[in-house]
Amino acid sequence: MNKLLVALLMLVSVSLSAQDMATYTFSIKGNDTIKLDVFTPKNIKKSDTLPVLLWMHGGGFSGSHRAYPDDNKLVKYVAKEQNYIGVSIDYRQLRKNTATGFGCDCSKDEKLETFKQAVIDYMDAAKYIVVHAKELQIDTTKIIAGGSSAGAEGILNAVFMREYFLDNAEAYDEVQFAGVFSCAGAVVDASYINKDNVVPSVLYHGTKDQLVPFDNAAHHLCEPTRDGYIILDGSNVIAKKLEELETAYYFNIVKEGRHEVSSIPFEDLNAIFNFFEQTIINNDVIQTKIIKTKN
Q1: Nearest 5 degrees, angle CA 69-CA 14-CA 68?
Q2: DSSP assignment of 212-231, as one string?
Q3: Domains along the chain?
Q4: What are the backbone angles phi and psi of residue 233, rounded to the nearest 5°?
Q5: Domain BD-FAE-like spans what residues (predicted)?
Q6: CA geometry: angle 168, 169, 172, nearest 5 deg
Q7: Which of 14, 135, 226, 262 has the greatest number of beta carbons closer than 10 A?
Q8: Contact call for residues 160 and 182 (beta carbons, < 8 A)
């Protein structure tokens, strides 16, 4: 086989594999042009509309990106194995190159502003896919909000506290979430979770998470005397609220686990999407709590 033919075959192969992914700009804010990647199943029919996982990566609001290997692997997986549309988004990294970072030197007000802007970026991405649902072949009644670490904080606050963080919440009325997939996330105040916004939720968290609290505790375990002292409601508080509201959840607790539990649980993905099939598609109420001990 000559070199030209090999090159042509490689080009065709790359082209075919790339047909399932498209990149779009969903927002421009100042110097930030914010994009998302959409992965579509190869066998999708023109008449199909599919559920979507709208994924927000982690990174402490200061790093990582939508195509980070694990995040990229997840949205590819849902398109290939679950017949979902997989969407991975970028968002503004407002704590990048700041003197105070996002730990105990970062003031409470700065943290709340960071959460607010992350919610805005996430909701803008969600609104984009709703507005363009026809060409993206998305079922807008089956949007699962997902994220890890900082991304999980972003999506949980977007799903359960949009009225708190958005000055113009009514502009996003067409965005409705059907489920949540959170890896080591928290909300500012779980009392905002109510019968009108509650959805079936997958929650992963380590009981000794040193960054995002498992229960009702200080972010980054900051002492009350520090500028960055702010109490958040972690997965354990959220799960109790879901139970109180008789809503489905799949809560995976890792005893003694720290923030490494924010990693995407690839080994559990079949079980996770079976849960969404049962609760979102079939409307079953399933409340499952799995307790593991860190190895």
Answers
A1: 10
A2: S-SSEEEGGG--TTSTT--E
A3: 20-293 (3.40.50.1820)
A4: -105, 110
A5: 36-162
A6: 110
A7: 262
A8: no
**What's the CA gap between 50 and 5, in Å, rounded?**
38
Q: What is the pLDDT of residues 52-110, one digit of tens each?
A: 999 999 999 999 999 999 999 999 999 999 999 999 999 999 999 999 999 999 999 99
Q: Do the Cβ atoms of 147 and 109 come closer than 8 Å?
A: no
Nearest to 193 by CA among 141, 265, 249: 249
Backbone φ and ψ of 102, nearest 5°: -135, 20
Strands 216-218 and 231-234: antiparallel
Give the whole-angstrom CA distance, residue 31 versus residue 78: 32
Residue with structure tokens 């579509």? 40
**CA quadruple 200, 206, 211, 217: dihedral, nearest 10:** 80
Mean pLDDT (the chain) is 93
Query: What is the C-alpha to C-alpha distance for residues 83 and 134, in angstroms, rounded to an integer?
Result: 17
Whole-angstrom distance, CA of residue 55 vs CA of residue 58: 10
Angle between helices 150-160 and 108-131 in degrees, nearest 10 = 70
Locus of tokens 């030197």: 105
At residue 170, φ and ψ (nearest 5 deg) are -65, -20
The structure tokens 């998305």 sit at 138
DSSP string, 118-138: HHHHHHHHHHHHHHTHHHHTE
